[in-house]
Design brief:
The complex is a heterodimer of chains A (114) and B (115).
Chain A (H helix, E strand, L loop, with lengths): L3 E4 L2 E4 L5 E7 L5 E7 L5 E7 L6 E2 L7 E3 L5 E6 L8 E8 L9 E2 L3 E5 L1
Parallel strand pairs in A: 2-11
Antiparallel strand pairs in A: 1-3, 3-8, 4-5, 4-9, 5-6, 7-8, 9-10, 9-11
Chain B lengths: L3 E2 L4 E5 L4 E7 L6 E7 L6 E7 L4 E3 L3 E6 L4 E6 L8 E10 L5 E5 L3 E6 L1
Parallel strand pairs in B: 2-11
Antiparallel strand pairs in B: 1-3, 3-8, 4-5, 4-9, 6-7, 7-8, 9-10, 9-11
Classes of the chains: A mainly beta (114), B mainly beta (115).
Chain lengths: 114, 115
């Protein structure tokens, strides 16, 4: 049981390039989340999904897009990367979205935009 | 806006001592709280949670205390070990404008265990 797996683990991009971060979970969780973590700050929610085929905006959605074509996968896309998007990105999943269940996290993708 | 906060950014303890990490919250409507541990280069790892209808909950070597009167949450780690060195986050489930609850995370406290 791998839990939540994120790929890639590291990536360096040039300003303006695009890329997709992949998150996969094998726990059959309905809810999935993308966060970013910046130095000295807590996790900030980018987008989330309440089930296959659904997505919704979080606190800091600008510059990102997401898709949830399969229940187990949640993709985060950067169409035109900017230096301000340099961060560590974490994916999480949970059994419900009531906010009364723990979220389970992957080990992150460290993204640098030059 | 209301947010979760932490009193101490860094806590240094001796191996074998007990550790107490504190968290203040200001949203009285939050009814669920979680503590996470994050080691360097890793994602947050769930430690323990507590619902607002409880004052205390114990796990293996960890205890979470909730004081709703002063809106305070603490994580106690017994017999702290070098492997406990990490950043610890608390989170609360705040209700959003949409009415849906979502976890809001504090900025973290770094626990350093001295041998």
């Amino acid at each position: 049981n791998a839990g939540v797996t994120q790929t890639p683990k590291f990536r360096v991009l040039k300003t303006g390039q695009s890329m997709t971060l992949l998150c996969a979970q094998d726990m059959n969780h309905e809810y999935m989340y993308w966060y970013r973590q910046d130095p000295g700050m807590g996790l900030r929610l980018i987008h989330y999904s309440v089930g296959e085929g659904t997505t919704a905006k979080g606190e800091v959605p600008d510059g990102y897009n997401v898709s949830r074509l399969k229940k187990q996968n949640f993709l985060l896309g950067l169409e035109s990367a900017a230096p301000s998007q340099t961060s560590v990105y974490f994916c999480a999943s949970s059994t419900s979205g009531t906010g009364r269940q723990p979220q389970h996290f992957g080990d992150g993708t460290r993204l640098s935009i030059l | 806006g209301e947010s979760v906060g932490l009193h101490l950014p860094t806590l240094s303890v001796q191996e074998g001592d007990n550790s107490i990490i504190n968290c203040a919250y200001s949203n009285s409507a939050s009814d669920y709280f979680i503590w996470y541990k994050q080691e360097s280069g890793k994602g947050p790892q769930f430690i323990i949670d507590i619902r607002s209808n409880m004052d205390k909950r114990q796990g293996q070597r960890v205890t979470v205390l909730l004081n709703k009167t002063v809106k305070h949450l603490s994580l106690q780690i017994a017999a702290t070990q070098p492997g406990d060195s990490a950043v610890y986050f608390c989170a609360e489930n705040m209700a959003r404008d949409t009415g849906r609850r979502a976890l809001t995370f504090g900025s973290g406290t770094r626990l350093q265990v001295q041998p």
